[in-house]
Design a protein that fits this description.
By secondary structure, the protein is of the alpha/beta class. It contains 16 helices and 13 strands. It is elongated, with a radius of gyration of 22 Å.
C-alpha cells in the first residue's frame, strides 16, 4: 500500500451483521451520510437481512449496498463472498465495527485491502470462549504483527484490550458522535399527550432490555421513590429478551400503571424530550450513545459510573454520577425533581457539552484521517 495514489478515491467497504437499531449502526449511519464523496467511494455489506434500518442505509446517496445472505453462524462461505467483493471492486479498506473476523479473514483471502476492526466497549466476563479467543488471541497476534488495525469507540474499550496484552499504539480511539440537530429538536408534548402524562413528572431510560442494563434495580428504586413522590411515571424505551419478565416484575410490585414500556421506537428525540430526568443503571459500558442523545435533548443525566460515562457527564455540572450506589441515585432523583431551575440549567449545560465536544463532523474527520494515514504509511 506504500504506492497508493492519494489523488484517487479511497474505496471503503463496511461490514455489519444487520441493519438493526443499535449504537454501532447509529454511528455508521452518521459516518456514511457525511463522508467526503470527492475522496471516498463507499460500499456497505450486511451479513443478514433486517428491516429495522435497511431503508435508512439503502437511502444514503452514493452508497453501494450488498446483502450477503449468511445462512447461519457457521456459514463460512460469507468470508469468500466478502473477499470476492474486495477483489471485484478493488477495495482499499475493509472496516467492521462488530464481528471483526469479517474484515481480516476476507482481506487475507482477497490478498488486498487493509482490515480495520472495531472495539465497542465490552466486558470480558460475559463473553463466550470463542469470542474471547478471536478477540484476545487472534486479534492480538494480528495487531501486534501490524496486519490489522483496531478502532475503539471508548477509552474503556481500549483499556480492556491493553490489559490483555495489546500494544496501546495498535488501537486508536474515535469516540462516538451525536447528531445534535436531530436529538435537540424533540417534541416531548406529543409523547405526553400520547401516554396521557401531561401533568406527571417523567423519569426515563433508553436501552436494550438485557441483564447488564439492570432494569430490575431501576424499577425497584422507582417503587421506593413513588412512596415519596406519587405523581411520577417511568418511561422504559427499548426492547429485548427481558420485556415480559420486566412487565411481570412491575405487576408484582403493584406499580405497572406507573411504568410505560414503549418497545423500540424511531421517535427517540421526542421520547427524550418528554423526560424530566434520564436514568442509567448499566454495569458495563463503553461510550453509550443514549447518554449523549439525552444530553443533546437537554435532559439531565443521573447515571451509574461505567465505561467512559465520566468523560461525558461532568458530575454536579451537567448531570450526576453515583458510582454504583442506588440509594445515592434515589437521593439525586428526588433532589432534582424538587428543583426545576437546577434541572433546566443542567440540561442546558449537557446540551452544550454534546454540541461542542461530540459532533458528527469530528467523528467523520477522524475516520477519514485514519483511512488516509493507513494508505499513505
Amino acid at each position: 500500500m506504500d504506492q497508493f495514489d492519494l489523488q484517487k478515491k479511497i474505496k471503503v467497504l463496511f461490514i455489519l451483521p444487520k441493519a438493526q437499531q443499535g449504537g454501532a449502526e447509529t454511528q455508521l449511519l452518521c459516518l456514511l451520510k457525511n463522508m467526503d464523496r470527492q475522496r471516498f467511494e463507499i460500499y456497505m455489506g450486511f451479513l443478514y437481512r433486517n428491516d429495522e434500518l435497511e431503508k435508512e442505509f439503502c437511502g444514503i446517496k452514493d452508497v453501494n449496498v450488498f446483502f450477503l445472505n449468511k445462512r447461519d453462524r457457521y456459514d463460512i462461505s460469507t468470508f469468500f463472498k466478502i473477499a470476492q467483493l474486495i477483489r471485484r471492486y478493488h477495495i482499499d479498506i475493509t472496516q467492521t465495527f462488530l464481528a471483526n473476523h469479517y474484515s481480516y479473514i476476507p482481506a487475507a483471502l482477497a490478498r488486498r485491502s487493509i482490515p480495520v476492526g472495531g472495539i465497542r466497549g465490552m466486558d470480558d466476563s460475559i463473553s463466550s470462549k470463542l469470542y474471547r479467543f478471536t478477540n484476545f488471541v487472534v486479534q492480538k497476534f494480528l495487531t501486534n504483527s501490524r496486519r490489522f488495525v483496531l478502532v475503539s469507540n471508548s477509552y474503556q474499550g481500549k483499556l480492556v484490550y491493553v490489559r490483555k496484552g495489546f500494544c496501546p499504539d495498535s488501537i486508536s480511539v474515535i469516540e462516538n458522535s451525536i447528531d445534535y440537530s436531530f436529538y435537540s429538536g424533540g417534541d416531548g408534548d406529543k409523547i405526553r399527550r400520547e401516554f396521557n402524562i401531561q401533568e406527571a413528572q417523567v423519569l426515563g431510560t433508553v436501552s436494550r432490555l438485557v441483564p447488564t442494563k439492570n432494569h430490575c434495580l431501576l424499577i425497584n428504586m422507582f417503587k421506593d421513590i413513588l412512596k415519596e413522590r406519587d405523581n411520577l411515571k417511568l418511561l422504559i424505551v427499548g426492547d429485548g429478551p427481558l420485556m415480559n419478565s420486566l412487565k411481570n416484575f412491575a405487576s408484582e410490585l403493584f406499580i405497572a400503571d406507573k411504568i410505560i414500556f414503549t418497545g423500540n421506537r424511531k421517535d427517540v428525540p421526542d421520547l427524550l424530550s418528554a423526560m424530566d430526568l434520564f436514568l442509567f443503571t448499566t454495569d458495563h459500558e463503553g461510550w453509550p450513545n443514549v447518554i449523549g442523545e439525552a444530553m443533546a435533548a437537554k435532559v439531565p443525566i443521573i447515571s451509574f459510573n461505567a465505561g467512559d460515562i465520566e468523560r461525558i457527564v461532568d458530575s454536579g455540572v451537567n448531570g450526576e454520577l453515583v458510582g454504583q450506589d442506588l440509594s445515592k441515585m434515589k437521593m439525586k432523583v428526588i433532589e432534582l425533581l424538587d428543583n426545576k431551575k437546577k434541572r433546566k440549567e443542567m440540561g442546558r449545560l449537557a446540551s452544550e457539552k454534546i454540541k461542542q465536544s461530540y459532533s458528527v463532523d469530528s467523528l467523520v474527520t477522524k475516520y477519514e484521517s485514519l483511512y488516509k494515514s493507513l494508505l499513505s504509511a
